[in-house]
Amino acid sequence: MSDxxxxxxxxxxxxxxxxxxxxxxxxxxxxxxxxxxxxxxxPLHRRGEPNKGPVARAWSQARTVTPMIFSA
Length: 72
Prior knowledge:
Layout: H1 9-45, H2 54-71
Helix pairs in contact: 1-2
């Protein structure tokens, strides 16, 4: 008899989803200080352009970088 629960597609999908969330959280936490610095220095470099907040910058970076890790 074979054990289909250990390697089932849904179990792997759930594990991948959890792993994605962990990586996303780590990258978001790492990008947040850089987002704060960019947000503070933005008016010095680019006047008149809309300024994203530090959380939006970090979220955008994490949303861009995390899929790159999983596609490699």
